[in-house]
Design brief:
single chain, 95 residues, alpha+beta, Alpha-Beta Plaits, 5-stranded mixed beta sheet, 5 strands, 24% helix, 41% strand
Amino acid sequence: MTGPDSSRFVARVVGRVQGVGYRYFVRSRAGELRLGGSVQNLPNGSVRVEAEGPRAVLLGFLSELHVGPPAAVVERVDVEWHPPLGNSSFAILAG
């Protein structure tokens, strides 16, 4: 999804975020918000989230990443902002 107010971020979520439904939480919320991107478990125990859409929606989504599903314990979210790529679907990637 690209437009004049579109943006994209890549975030690394650190904490107890694997094995607690975090990726499914992210995919569900991204779908509800009509964001493009992906979510993936990383070998070091963190989760990588790439999301694209209207910047205001991304900021709200980013706030939700700091909380996650009930079983998650998010210690920190590191974020880098990038230009949009035009992704319109959201996927869980193997990892």
